[in-house]
Amino acid sequence: MHTAADERAAQAVVAHHAAMLQRLLELGSAVRAAAEGGDGPAASRERDLLVAYLRAELLPHALAEEGTMYRTGADRARLRLLVDGMVREHHALLALVDELSAAATPSAIAAAARAVEALFAVHLAKENKLLLPALLEEPDVSLAEQLEGMHELLGADG
Fold first, then answer.
1. Is the Cα torsion angle 5, 7, 8, 10 positive or negative in sign?
2. Which residues contact 150 (CB under 8 A, 6 or more apart)?
3. Distance CA 131, CA 40 (A)
4. How does pLDDT run across 118-130, given as a tens digit for each residue?
5. What is the pTM of this model?
6. Region of residue 133 (left: phi > 0; alpha: psi -120 to 50; beta: else)
7. Most exposed among 72, 94, 107, 109, judged by the fewest C-beta atoms under 10 Å?
8. Cα 62 to chain center, whole Å?
9. Contact, 111 vs 91, CB < 8 A?
């Protein structure tokens, strides 16, 4: 049975996910606006800002998840396939970030940015609605203890 602290930890993860997705969508929107305006240099500048955010925030968050929640989930037979799929999505996100970083034309930049947004949104939905609730159901798992001090998962207030 989970505690109130576990519930607060899960809510903090979900809130951090929402903030990350919002920031990703804002940066992606700026990329697409520059690309659709046909301004190659502006699209490249916006792409670079997006890539910097992804490498500084999103990818470290993914690695932190793998070392905590995903490791715990992978130890449970009923969650093993879900966690394996989510790790594969992290690898796909990394590949898309590399593709975005290398994109040279406004249309390629916009397409790669949109692909990152779409995959990350679907990934977060699985995490928020499938993995976190399943971990909360585990009697021997304390999300609060597991995530203590994990700013990459909980945000600056975690």
1. positive
2. 64, 68, 158
3. 40
4. 999 999 999 999 9
5. 0.91
6. alpha
7. 107
8. 6
9. no
